[in-house]
Amino acid sequence: MCQLLGMSCNTPTDIGFSFAGFRQRGGATDHHEDGFGIAFFEKSDSGDIGLRQFHDNQPSYLSPVADLVNHYPIRAMNVIAHIRKATTGEKNNLANVHPFVREVWGEQWAFAHNGQMTDSFIRRTHRLHTNGNAEHYTPVGTTDSELAFCYLLNRLKSAFKTRPSDETLFTFLTAQCRYLSANGLFNCLISNGRWQLAYAGSLLFYLIRQAPFGEAYLSDGEMSVDFKDVTTSKDKVAVIVTIPLTSNEHWQQIAVDECLVFKDGAIVFRDTPSKKTYMTIEEGIALARSVGASV
Amino acid sequence: MCQLLGMSCNTPTDIGFSFAGFRQRGGATDHHEDGFGIAFFEKSDSGDIGLRQFHDNQPSYLSPVADLVNHYPIRAMNVIAHIRKATTGEKNNLANVHPFVREVWGEQWAFAHNGQMTDSFIRRTHRLHTNGNAEHYTPVGTTDSELAFCYLLNRLKSAFKTRPSDETLFTFLTAQCRYLSANGLFNCLISNGRWQLAYAGSLLFYLIRQAPFGEAYLSDGEMSVDFKDVTTSKDKVAVIVTIPLTSNEHWQQIAVDECLVFKDGAIVFRDTPSKKTYMTIEEGIALARSVGASV
Protein backbone atom coordinates (compact mmCIF):
# COMPACT_ATOMS: atom_id res chain seq x y z
CA MET A 1 0.00 0.00 0.00
CA CYS A 2 1.03 3.55 -0.37
CA GLN A 3 4.03 5.47 -1.66
CA LEU A 4 7.41 6.28 -0.21
CA LEU A 5 9.65 9.33 -0.38
CA GLY A 6 13.13 9.56 1.12
CA MET A 7 15.94 12.08 1.12
CA SER A 8 19.59 11.86 2.19
CA CYS A 9 21.88 14.90 2.02
CA ASN A 10 25.36 16.08 2.88
CA THR A 11 24.05 19.43 4.08
CA PRO A 12 20.77 20.36 5.82
CA THR A 13 18.24 20.53 2.99
CA ASP A 14 14.61 21.58 2.66
CA ILE A 15 12.54 18.81 1.05
CA GLY A 16 9.82 21.31 0.11
CA PHE A 17 9.99 20.92 -3.68
CA SER A 18 9.83 17.11 -3.67
CA PHE A 19 7.20 17.07 -0.95
CA ALA A 20 5.08 19.61 -2.86
CA GLY A 21 4.78 17.09 -5.70
CA PHE A 22 4.58 13.99 -3.52
CA ARG A 23 1.72 15.30 -1.37
CA GLN A 24 -0.44 15.82 -4.47
CA ARG A 25 -0.58 12.03 -4.79
CA GLY A 26 -2.41 11.93 -1.47
CA GLY A 27 -5.82 12.73 -2.91
CA ALA A 28 -5.23 15.06 -5.89
CA THR A 29 -3.17 13.33 -8.62
CA ASP A 30 -3.49 9.89 -6.99
CA HIS A 31 -5.63 8.09 -4.41
CA HIS A 32 -3.32 7.71 -1.37
CA GLU A 33 -5.63 9.75 0.77
CA ASP A 34 -5.73 7.88 4.09
CA GLY A 35 -3.26 10.10 5.86
CA PHE A 36 0.42 10.82 5.62
CA GLY A 37 3.49 11.05 7.78
CA ILE A 38 6.92 12.58 7.50
CA ALA A 39 9.98 12.18 9.70
CA PHE A 40 12.81 14.75 9.66
CA PHE A 41 16.24 13.98 11.06
CA GLU A 42 17.87 17.30 11.85
CA LYS A 43 21.39 18.06 12.99
CA SER A 44 22.02 20.26 16.02
CA ASP A 45 24.91 22.73 16.24
CA SER A 46 27.04 20.08 17.93
CA GLY A 47 26.21 17.43 15.32
CA ASP A 48 23.62 15.50 17.34
CA ILE A 49 20.72 14.10 15.38
CA GLY A 50 17.19 14.99 16.49
CA LEU A 51 13.99 13.62 15.03
CA ARG A 52 10.69 15.33 14.53
CA GLN A 53 7.63 13.80 13.00
CA PHE A 54 4.39 15.07 11.54
CA HIS A 55 1.42 12.76 11.08
CA ASP A 56 -2.08 13.45 9.90
CA ASN A 57 -5.05 11.31 9.01
CA GLN A 58 -6.28 13.84 6.46
CA PRO A 59 -5.27 13.46 2.80
CA SER A 60 -1.84 15.04 2.32
CA TYR A 61 -2.89 17.23 -0.60
CA LEU A 62 -5.18 19.30 1.66
CA SER A 63 -3.87 18.58 5.18
CA PRO A 64 -3.03 21.69 7.25
CA VAL A 65 -0.15 19.69 8.72
CA ALA A 66 1.21 19.13 5.19
CA ASP A 67 0.74 22.86 4.55
CA LEU A 68 2.91 23.60 7.56
CA VAL A 69 5.55 21.15 6.34
CA ASN A 70 5.57 22.96 2.99
CA HIS A 71 5.65 26.49 4.36
CA TYR A 72 7.97 26.07 7.35
CA PRO A 73 11.23 25.14 5.70
CA ILE A 74 12.79 22.39 7.80
CA ARG A 75 16.37 21.63 6.80
CA ALA A 76 17.12 18.00 7.43
CA MET A 77 19.89 15.47 6.76
CA ASN A 78 17.47 12.59 6.23
CA VAL A 79 13.74 12.53 5.60
CA ILE A 80 11.24 9.71 5.21
CA ALA A 81 7.69 10.46 4.06
CA HIS A 82 4.76 8.18 3.35
CA ILE A 83 1.29 8.67 1.92
CA ARG A 84 -1.19 5.98 2.79
CA LYS A 85 -3.89 4.10 0.98
CA ALA A 86 -5.29 1.86 3.69
CA THR A 87 -5.49 -1.82 2.78
CA THR A 88 -4.68 -3.57 6.07
CA GLY A 89 -5.43 -1.77 9.32
CA GLU A 90 -8.18 0.70 10.12
CA LYS A 91 -8.35 3.92 8.11
CA ASN A 92 -8.36 7.12 10.01
CA ASN A 93 -6.28 5.63 12.81
CA LEU A 94 -3.14 7.60 13.63
CA ALA A 95 -1.53 4.48 15.08
CA ASN A 96 -1.47 3.12 11.51
CA VAL A 97 0.21 6.10 9.88
CA HIS A 98 3.84 5.61 8.76
CA PRO A 99 6.68 6.34 9.38
CA PHE A 100 6.88 4.15 12.45
CA VAL A 101 9.62 4.98 14.93
CA ARG A 102 11.47 2.95 17.54
CA GLU A 103 14.59 3.62 19.58
CA VAL A 104 17.43 1.19 18.85
CA TRP A 105 20.71 1.41 20.84
CA GLY A 106 20.00 5.05 21.69
CA GLU A 107 19.10 6.02 18.10
CA GLN A 108 15.69 6.82 16.67
CA TRP A 109 14.92 4.58 13.71
CA ALA A 110 12.16 5.55 11.29
CA PHE A 111 10.58 3.08 8.89
CA ALA A 112 8.03 3.31 6.09
CA HIS A 113 6.72 0.43 4.00
CA ASN A 114 4.97 0.03 0.71
CA GLY A 115 3.52 -3.40 0.04
CA GLN A 116 1.61 -6.12 1.80
CA MET A 117 2.90 -8.94 4.01
CA THR A 118 1.35 -12.39 3.48
CA ASP A 119 -1.34 -13.69 5.82
CA SER A 120 0.96 -16.51 6.83
CA PHE A 121 3.75 -14.07 7.83
CA ILE A 122 1.24 -12.01 9.81
CA ARG A 123 -0.08 -15.10 11.65
CA ARG A 124 3.38 -16.45 12.44
CA THR A 125 4.70 -13.12 13.63
CA HIS A 126 1.67 -12.45 15.83
CA ARG A 127 2.29 -15.88 17.36
CA LEU A 128 5.87 -14.85 18.25
CA HIS A 129 4.43 -11.92 20.19
CA THR A 130 1.77 -14.05 21.90
CA ASN A 131 4.41 -16.58 22.95
CA GLY A 132 6.71 -13.90 24.35
CA ASN A 133 9.37 -14.56 21.68
CA ALA A 134 9.45 -11.00 20.34
CA GLU A 135 10.20 -9.19 23.52
CA HIS A 136 11.88 -5.97 22.44
CA TYR A 137 9.34 -4.34 20.15
CA THR A 138 5.57 -4.77 19.77
CA PRO A 139 3.31 -3.08 17.21
CA VAL A 140 1.02 -0.34 18.51
CA GLY A 141 -1.32 -0.17 15.51
CA THR A 142 -2.83 -2.90 13.37
CA THR A 143 -0.84 -2.70 10.11
CA ASP A 144 1.22 -5.50 8.60
CA SER A 145 3.90 -2.83 8.02
CA GLU A 146 4.53 -2.05 11.67
CA LEU A 147 4.51 -5.80 12.36
CA ALA A 148 7.26 -6.26 9.75
CA PHE A 149 9.26 -3.38 11.25
CA CYS A 150 9.00 -4.84 14.76
CA TYR A 151 9.94 -8.27 13.39
CA LEU A 152 13.09 -6.81 11.81
CA LEU A 153 14.04 -4.86 14.95
CA ASN A 154 13.43 -7.83 17.26
CA ARG A 155 15.75 -9.92 15.08
CA LEU A 156 18.30 -7.10 15.08
CA LYS A 157 18.29 -6.53 18.82
CA SER A 158 18.42 -10.27 19.54
CA ALA A 159 21.43 -10.61 17.24
CA PHE A 160 23.34 -7.54 18.44
CA LYS A 161 23.29 -6.27 22.04
CA THR A 162 25.22 -3.20 20.91
CA ARG A 163 25.60 -1.56 17.52
CA PRO A 164 27.83 -3.52 15.13
CA SER A 165 29.92 -1.94 12.37
CA ASP A 166 27.99 -0.32 9.52
CA GLU A 167 29.05 -3.06 7.11
CA THR A 168 27.81 -5.83 9.43
CA LEU A 169 24.63 -3.89 10.13
CA PHE A 170 23.78 -3.22 6.47
CA THR A 171 24.48 -6.85 5.53
CA PHE A 172 22.22 -8.04 8.36
CA LEU A 173 19.46 -5.58 7.41
CA THR A 174 19.65 -6.64 3.75
CA ALA A 175 19.20 -10.27 4.79
CA GLN A 176 16.17 -9.33 6.92
CA CYS A 177 14.65 -7.30 4.08
CA ARG A 178 15.17 -10.25 1.71
CA TYR A 179 13.34 -12.48 4.20
CA LEU A 180 10.49 -9.98 4.47
CA SER A 181 10.37 -9.63 0.69
CA ALA A 182 10.05 -13.42 0.42
CA ASN A 183 7.07 -13.18 2.78
CA GLY A 184 5.14 -10.42 1.10
CA LEU A 185 5.48 -7.41 -1.10
CA PHE A 186 8.10 -5.35 0.64
CA ASN A 187 9.52 -1.98 -0.39
CA CYS A 188 10.88 0.04 2.49
CA LEU A 189 12.90 3.00 3.68
CA ILE A 190 14.71 2.89 7.04
CA SER A 191 16.80 5.66 8.55
CA ASN A 192 18.56 6.36 11.84
CA GLY A 193 19.23 9.92 10.76
CA ARG A 194 22.82 9.20 9.67
CA TRP A 195 22.13 6.74 6.88
CA GLN A 196 19.08 5.71 4.90
CA LEU A 197 18.41 2.24 3.61
CA ALA A 198 16.20 1.69 0.57
CA TYR A 199 15.00 -1.80 -0.27
CA ALA A 200 12.99 -2.47 -3.43
CA GLY A 201 10.62 -5.42 -3.47
CA SER A 202 8.99 -4.05 -6.62
CA LEU A 203 9.21 -0.31 -7.41
CA LEU A 204 11.68 2.22 -6.10
CA PHE A 205 13.65 4.93 -7.92
CA TYR A 206 16.35 7.37 -6.89
CA LEU A 207 18.45 10.20 -8.18
CA ILE A 208 21.38 12.11 -6.80
CA ARG A 209 21.39 15.83 -7.43
CA GLN A 210 24.81 17.45 -7.40
CA ALA A 211 26.77 20.10 -9.29
CA PRO A 212 26.25 21.12 -12.03
CA PHE A 213 22.67 21.66 -10.84
CA GLY A 214 19.86 22.32 -13.26
CA GLU A 215 16.17 22.88 -13.44
CA ALA A 216 13.58 20.27 -12.43
CA TYR A 217 9.88 20.05 -13.28
CA LEU A 218 7.40 18.28 -11.00
CA SER A 219 5.27 15.58 -12.61
CA ASP A 220 2.39 16.21 -10.19
CA GLY A 221 1.94 19.94 -10.47
CA GLU A 222 2.83 23.13 -12.24
CA MET A 223 6.04 23.71 -10.38
CA SER A 224 9.69 23.89 -11.23
CA VAL A 225 12.84 24.88 -9.44
CA ASP A 226 16.30 25.79 -10.64
CA PHE A 227 18.53 24.05 -8.13
CA LYS A 228 21.44 26.33 -9.16
CA ASP A 229 19.65 29.10 -7.26
CA VAL A 230 19.31 27.23 -3.98
CA THR A 231 22.47 25.12 -3.70
CA THR A 232 26.22 25.39 -3.40
CA SER A 233 28.59 23.42 -5.59
CA LYS A 234 29.35 20.98 -2.76
CA ASP A 235 25.74 19.97 -2.10
CA LYS A 236 24.68 16.42 -2.73
CA VAL A 237 21.08 15.31 -2.30
CA ALA A 238 19.72 11.84 -2.93
CA VAL A 239 15.97 11.50 -3.41
CA ILE A 240 14.30 8.09 -3.31
CA VAL A 241 10.68 7.60 -4.34
CA THR A 242 8.18 4.93 -5.40
CA ILE A 243 7.44 6.63 -8.74
CA PRO A 244 9.67 9.42 -10.14
CA LEU A 245 8.69 12.92 -9.05
CA THR A 246 10.08 14.99 -11.91
CA SER A 247 9.58 14.73 -15.62
CA ASN A 248 12.93 15.97 -16.95
CA GLU A 249 15.51 14.24 -14.76
CA HIS A 250 17.02 10.80 -15.15
CA TRP A 251 15.82 8.60 -12.28
CA GLN A 252 17.69 5.37 -11.60
CA GLN A 253 15.61 2.35 -10.80
CA ILE A 254 16.52 0.10 -7.87
CA ALA A 255 16.41 -3.55 -8.97
CA VAL A 256 13.93 -5.99 -7.46
CA ASP A 257 15.41 -7.20 -4.14
CA GLU A 258 18.29 -4.76 -4.33
CA CYS A 259 19.32 -2.91 -1.19
CA LEU A 260 21.01 0.49 -1.22
CA VAL A 261 22.22 2.56 1.71
CA PHE A 262 22.66 6.31 1.31
CA LYS A 263 24.76 8.54 3.54
CA ASP A 264 25.35 12.25 2.99
CA GLY A 265 23.64 12.01 -0.39
CA ALA A 266 25.87 9.21 -1.71
CA ILE A 267 25.52 5.44 -1.97
CA VAL A 268 27.73 3.79 0.66
CA PHE A 269 26.43 0.22 0.45
CA ARG A 270 24.81 -1.80 -2.30
CA ASP A 271 23.71 -5.40 -2.36
CA THR A 272 22.33 -6.46 -5.72
CA PRO A 273 20.89 -9.91 -6.49
CA SER A 274 23.02 -11.84 -9.00
CA LYS A 275 20.17 -11.68 -11.48
CA LYS A 276 18.97 -8.11 -11.79
CA THR A 277 15.31 -7.60 -12.71
CA TYR A 278 13.32 -4.41 -13.07
CA MET A 279 9.58 -3.98 -13.12
CA THR A 280 7.87 -1.39 -15.22
CA ILE A 281 5.72 1.03 -13.25
CA GLU A 282 2.66 -0.69 -14.76
CA GLU A 283 3.91 -4.12 -13.63
CA GLY A 284 4.63 -2.76 -10.14
CA ILE A 285 1.14 -1.30 -9.84
CA ALA A 286 -0.44 -4.51 -11.13
CA LEU A 287 1.56 -6.61 -8.65
CA ALA A 288 0.57 -4.36 -5.76
CA ARG A 289 -3.10 -4.62 -6.73
CA SER A 290 -2.89 -8.39 -7.05
CA VAL A 291 -1.77 -8.76 -3.43
CA GLY A 292 -4.26 -6.27 -2.07
CA ALA A 293 -1.79 -3.43 -1.70
CA SER A 294 -1.68 -0.30 -3.79
CA VAL A 295 0.90 1.91 -5.44
CA MET B 1 13.78 22.83 34.14
CA CYS B 2 10.76 23.90 32.20
CA GLN B 3 7.01 23.69 32.66
CA LEU B 4 4.48 20.93 32.17
CA LEU B 5 0.92 20.86 30.87
CA GLY B 6 -1.29 17.78 30.76
CA MET B 7 -4.90 17.04 29.88
CA SER B 8 -7.08 13.98 30.44
CA CYS B 9 -10.67 13.87 29.15
CA ASN B 10 -13.67 11.60 28.84
CA THR B 11 -14.42 12.89 25.34
CA PRO B 12 -12.08 14.09 22.57
CA THR B 13 -11.18 17.64 23.55
CA ASP B 14 -9.29 20.53 21.96
CA ILE B 15 -6.56 21.80 24.32
CA GLY B 16 -6.40 25.09 22.38
CA PHE B 17 -7.45 27.42 25.20
CA SER B 18 -4.99 26.03 27.76
CA PHE B 19 -2.22 25.78 25.19
CA ALA B 20 -2.82 29.37 24.08
CA GLY B 21 -1.92 30.51 27.59
CA PHE B 22 0.81 27.95 28.22
CA ARG B 23 2.74 28.74 25.03
CA GLN B 24 3.05 32.41 26.07
CA ARG B 25 5.38 31.22 28.84
CA GLY B 26 7.77 30.05 26.16
CA GLY B 27 9.33 33.45 25.57
CA ALA B 28 6.56 36.02 26.09
CA THR B 29 5.29 35.95 29.72
CA ASP B 30 8.14 33.69 30.91
CA HIS B 31 11.57 32.53 29.78
CA HIS B 32 11.05 28.88 28.72
CA GLU B 33 12.14 29.66 25.21
CA ASP B 34 14.37 26.71 24.27
CA GLY B 35 11.73 24.85 22.32
CA PHE B 36 8.53 23.02 23.08
CA GLY B 37 6.83 19.74 22.43
CA ILE B 38 3.30 18.41 22.60
CA ALA B 39 1.99 14.86 22.33
CA PHE B 40 -1.65 14.16 21.46
CA PHE B 41 -3.24 10.79 22.10
CA GLU B 42 -6.24 10.54 19.78
CA LYS B 43 -8.95 7.90 19.59
CA SER B 44 -9.85 6.30 16.27
CA ASP B 45 -13.41 5.34 15.33
CA SER B 46 -12.82 1.83 16.67
CA GLY B 47 -11.37 3.10 19.95
CA ASP B 48 -7.69 2.54 19.13
CA ILE B 49 -5.30 5.12 20.51
CA GLY B 50 -2.94 6.88 18.11
CA LEU B 51 -0.21 9.32 19.03
CA ARG B 52 1.03 12.35 17.20
CA GLN B 53 3.70 14.70 18.33
CA PHE B 54 4.85 18.18 17.44
CA HIS B 55 8.28 19.42 18.44
CA ASP B 56 10.05 22.65 17.69
CA ASN B 57 13.26 24.27 18.85
CA GLN B 58 11.82 27.75 18.42
CA PRO B 59 10.21 29.48 21.41
CA SER B 60 6.60 28.31 21.69
CA TYR B 61 5.12 31.82 21.81
CA LEU B 62 6.18 32.48 18.20
CA SER B 63 6.76 28.99 16.75
CA PRO B 64 4.87 28.26 13.49
CA VAL B 65 4.44 24.70 14.78
CA ALA B 66 2.75 26.06 17.90
CA ASP B 67 0.58 28.26 15.63
CA LEU B 68 -0.54 25.14 13.79
CA VAL B 69 -1.33 23.38 17.07
CA ASN B 70 -3.46 26.38 18.06
CA HIS B 71 -5.30 26.78 14.76
CA TYR B 72 -5.80 23.16 13.76
CA PRO B 73 -8.10 21.91 16.47
CA ILE B 74 -6.92 18.45 17.45
CA ARG B 75 -9.35 16.63 19.71
CA ALA B 76 -7.48 14.30 22.01
CA MET B 77 -8.13 12.08 25.03
CA ASN B 78 -4.76 12.79 26.63
CA VAL B 79 -2.21 15.49 25.95
CA ILE B 80 1.23 16.20 27.38
CA ALA B 81 3.01 19.46 26.56
CA HIS B 82 6.33 20.87 27.71
CA ILE B 83 8.12 24.17 27.27
CA ARG B 84 11.83 24.06 27.81
CA LYS B 85 14.40 26.24 29.48
CA ALA B 86 17.62 24.36 28.79
CA THR B 87 19.74 23.67 31.86
CA THR B 88 21.23 20.24 31.13
CA GLY B 89 21.65 19.18 27.52
CA GLU B 90 22.39 21.27 24.46
CA LYS B 91 19.93 24.01 23.51
CA ASN B 92 18.52 23.96 20.05
CA ASN B 93 18.77 20.18 19.85
CA LEU B 94 15.54 18.45 18.90
CA ALA B 95 16.72 15.25 20.57
CA ASN B 96 16.45 17.11 23.89
CA VAL B 97 12.90 18.38 23.42
CA HIS B 98 10.23 16.72 25.59
CA PRO B 99 7.88 14.83 25.56
CA PHE B 100 10.02 11.74 25.09
CA VAL B 101 8.26 8.69 23.70
CA ARG B 102 8.95 4.98 23.93
CA GLU B 103 6.90 1.92 23.06
CA VAL B 104 6.08 -0.28 26.07
CA TRP B 105 4.18 -3.58 25.59
CA GLY B 106 2.69 -2.30 22.32
CA GLU B 107 1.68 1.09 23.75
CA GLN B 108 3.24 4.48 23.12
CA TRP B 109 4.28 6.11 26.39
CA ALA B 110 4.96 9.84 26.48
CA PHE B 111 6.90 11.50 29.29
CA ALA B 112 7.76 15.06 30.22
CA HIS B 113 9.85 16.18 33.18
CA ASN B 114 10.37 19.37 35.12
CA GLY B 115 13.34 19.36 37.47
CA GLN B 116 16.93 18.26 37.59
CA MET B 117 18.38 14.87 38.46
CA THR B 118 21.46 14.82 40.71
CA ASP B 119 24.93 14.37 39.25
CA SER B 120 25.29 11.17 41.21
CA PHE B 121 22.07 9.72 39.70
CA ILE B 122 23.24 10.70 36.23
CA ARG B 123 26.65 9.04 36.73
CA ARG B 124 25.20 5.85 38.19
CA THR B 125 22.56 5.53 35.49
CA HIS B 126 25.02 6.15 32.66
CA ARG B 127 27.13 3.37 34.21
CA LEU B 128 24.16 0.97 33.99
CA HIS B 129 24.02 1.66 30.24
CA THR B 130 27.77 1.30 29.78
CA ASN B 131 27.72 -2.03 31.64
CA GLY B 132 24.81 -3.35 29.56
CA ASN B 133 22.47 -3.43 32.57
CA ALA B 134 19.84 -1.18 31.04
CA GLU B 135 19.15 -3.09 27.91
CA HIS B 136 15.61 -2.15 26.92
CA TYR B 137 15.77 1.64 26.54
CA THR B 138 18.67 4.05 25.96
CA PRO B 139 18.50 7.85 25.80
CA VAL B 140 18.87 9.45 22.37
CA GLY B 141 19.56 13.00 23.54
CA THR B 142 21.69 14.34 26.38
CA THR B 143 19.13 15.42 29.00
CA ASP B 144 18.90 14.09 32.54
CA SER B 145 15.13 13.89 31.90
CA GLU B 146 15.30 11.30 29.13
CA LEU B 147 17.83 9.39 31.25
CA ALA B 148 15.31 9.30 34.12
CA PHE B 149 12.53 8.17 31.74
CA CYS B 150 14.70 5.36 30.36
CA TYR B 151 15.70 4.36 33.90
CA LEU B 152 12.04 4.09 34.89
CA LEU B 153 11.09 2.11 31.76
CA ASN B 154 14.06 -0.26 32.08
CA ARG B 155 12.99 -0.99 35.67
CA LEU B 156 9.40 -1.47 34.50
CA LYS B 157 10.19 -3.81 31.63
CA SER B 158 12.62 -5.84 33.75
CA ALA B 159 9.95 -6.25 36.42
CA PHE B 160 7.03 -7.07 34.11
CA LYS B 161 7.35 -8.98 30.85
CA THR B 162 3.71 -8.20 30.07
CA ARG B 163 1.45 -5.47 31.29
CA PRO B 164 0.29 -5.96 34.91
CA SER B 165 -3.06 -4.75 36.29
CA ASP B 166 -3.51 -0.96 36.47
CA GLU B 167 -3.33 -1.06 40.29
CA THR B 168 -0.02 -2.95 40.26
CA LEU B 169 1.31 -0.72 37.50
CA PHE B 170 0.41 2.55 39.21
CA THR B 171 1.86 1.36 42.53
CA PHE B 172 5.09 0.35 40.79
CA LEU B 173 5.30 3.66 38.90
CA THR B 174 4.71 5.62 42.10
CA ALA B 175 7.59 3.77 43.77
CA GLN B 176 9.85 4.55 40.79
CA CYS B 177 8.85 8.23 40.82
CA ARG B 178 9.56 8.39 44.59
CA TYR B 179 13.01 6.93 43.91
CA LEU B 180 13.64 9.48 41.15
CA SER B 181 12.36 12.27 43.38
CA ALA B 182 14.84 11.15 46.06
CA ASN B 183 17.59 11.48 43.42
CA GLY B 184 16.79 14.88 42.07
CA LEU B 185 14.02 17.37 41.57
CA PHE B 186 11.38 15.39 39.79
CA ASN B 187 7.96 16.53 38.59
CA CYS B 188 6.60 14.51 35.70
CA LEU B 189 3.68 13.60 33.50
CA ILE B 190 3.45 10.15 31.90
CA SER B 191 0.69 8.91 29.63
CA ASN B 192 -0.03 5.85 27.53
CA GLY B 193 -3.05 7.57 26.00
CA ARG B 194 -5.53 5.83 28.28
CA TRP B 195 -4.38 7.21 31.62
CA GLN B 196 -2.13 10.02 32.71
CA LEU B 197 0.12 9.96 35.74
CA ALA B 198 1.13 13.19 37.47
CA TYR B 199 3.90 13.14 40.04
CA ALA B 200 4.81 16.26 41.98
CA GLY B 201 8.33 16.61 43.32
CA SER B 202 7.72 20.30 43.96
CA LEU B 203 5.03 22.18 42.02
CA LEU B 204 2.07 20.75 40.14
CA PHE B 205 -1.58 21.83 40.09
CA TYR B 206 -4.73 20.42 38.55
CA LEU B 207 -8.39 21.13 38.11
CA ILE B 208 -11.27 19.12 36.76
CA ARG B 209 -13.75 21.00 34.63
CA GLN B 210 -17.24 19.51 34.54
CA ALA B 211 -20.87 20.64 34.58
CA PRO B 212 -21.93 23.23 35.53
CA PHE B 213 -19.31 24.82 33.29
CA GLY B 214 -18.40 28.48 33.61
CA GLU B 215 -16.10 31.10 32.22
CA ALA B 216 -12.32 30.97 32.54
CA TYR B 217 -9.74 33.73 32.14
CA LEU B 218 -6.16 33.00 31.09
CA SER B 219 -3.43 34.36 33.37
CA ASP B 220 -1.00 34.71 30.45
CA GLY B 221 -3.04 36.64 27.92
CA GLU B 222 -6.19 38.57 27.20
CA MET B 223 -8.33 35.54 26.54
CA SER B 224 -11.35 33.96 28.10
CA VAL B 225 -13.73 31.19 27.19
CA ASP B 226 -17.17 30.23 28.40
CA PHE B 227 -16.95 26.45 28.59
CA LYS B 228 -20.78 26.26 28.61
CA ASP B 229 -20.62 27.14 24.92
CA VAL B 230 -18.22 24.38 23.91
CA THR B 231 -19.12 21.42 26.12
CA THR B 232 -21.93 19.00 26.89
CA SER B 233 -23.11 18.28 30.42
CA LYS B 234 -21.31 14.93 30.44
CA ASP B 235 -17.85 16.30 29.58
CA LYS B 236 -15.08 15.98 32.11
CA VAL B 237 -11.66 17.47 31.49
CA ALA B 238 -8.73 17.38 33.88
CA VAL B 239 -5.93 19.88 33.29
CA ILE B 240 -2.58 19.52 35.07
CA VAL B 241 0.03 22.25 35.00
CA THR B 242 3.17 23.48 36.76
CA ILE B 243 1.65 26.88 37.58
CA PRO B 244 -2.12 27.56 37.28
CA LEU B 245 -3.22 28.77 33.85
CA THR B 246 -6.37 30.70 34.74
CA SER B 247 -6.96 33.45 37.24
CA ASN B 248 -10.55 32.78 38.29
CA GLU B 249 -10.73 29.02 38.81
CA HIS B 250 -9.83 27.01 41.89
CA TRP B 251 -6.73 24.92 41.11
CA GLN B 252 -5.90 22.05 43.44
CA GLN B 253 -2.28 21.60 44.35
CA ILE B 254 -0.69 18.16 44.23
CA ALA B 255 1.28 17.55 47.45
CA VAL B 256 5.05 17.08 47.35
CA ASP B 257 5.74 13.44 46.43
CA GLU B 258 2.08 12.75 45.75
CA CYS B 259 1.15 10.69 42.72
CA LEU B 260 -2.18 10.98 40.92
CA VAL B 261 -3.44 9.05 37.92
CA PHE B 262 -6.18 10.51 35.75
CA LYS B 263 -8.41 8.58 33.38
CA ASP B 264 -11.28 10.04 31.38
CA GLY B 265 -10.92 13.31 33.26
CA ALA B 266 -11.22 11.74 36.73
CA ILE B 267 -8.72 10.67 39.39
CA VAL B 268 -8.53 6.87 39.46
CA PHE B 269 -5.45 6.41 41.64
CA ARG B 270 -3.87 8.50 44.36
CA ASP B 271 -0.87 7.82 46.53
CA THR B 272 -0.24 10.55 49.07
CA PRO B 273 2.70 10.61 51.50
CA SER B 274 1.56 10.25 55.14
CA LYS B 275 2.78 13.77 55.82
CA LYS B 276 1.37 16.13 53.19
CA THR B 277 3.44 19.19 52.36
CA TYR B 278 2.83 21.92 49.80
CA MET B 279 5.27 24.43 48.42
CA THR B 280 4.28 27.93 47.53
CA ILE B 281 4.98 28.85 43.92
CA GLU B 282 7.79 31.09 45.18
CA GLU B 283 9.34 28.20 47.16
CA GLY B 284 9.05 25.90 44.14
CA ILE B 285 10.79 28.41 41.88
CA ALA B 286 13.51 29.02 44.49
CA LEU B 287 14.09 25.25 44.88
CA ALA B 288 14.31 24.78 41.10
CA ARG B 289 16.87 27.59 40.85
CA SER B 290 18.93 26.19 43.71
CA VAL B 291 19.42 22.87 41.89
CA GLY B 292 20.13 24.48 38.55
CA ALA B 293 16.70 23.82 37.07
CA SER B 294 14.05 26.41 36.35
CA VAL B 295 10.31 26.82 36.71
TrEMBL record, chains A, B:
Fetch the Gene3D superfamilies from UniProt: Glutamine Phosphoribosylpyrophosphate, subunit 1, domain 1
State one Pfam family annotation.
Answer: GATase_4
One of the record's GO molecular function terms:
glycosyltransferase activity
Provide this UniProt record's keywords sorted from A to Z: Glutamine amidotransferase, Glycosyltransferase, Transferase
Q: Where is the Glutamine amidotransferase type-2 domain?
A: 2-295
Q: What is its EC number?
A: 2.4.2.-
Q: Which residues form a coiled coil?
A: none
Name the domain of life.
Bacteria
Note the PANTHER family from the entry. Answer: GLUTAMINE AMIDOTRANSFERASE, GLUTAMINE AMIDOTRANSFERASE YAFJ-RELATED
Q: What is this protein called?
A: Class II glutamine amidotransferase
Lineage in the entry?
Answer: Bacteria, Pseudomonadati, Pseudomonadota, Gammaproteobacteria, Moraxellales
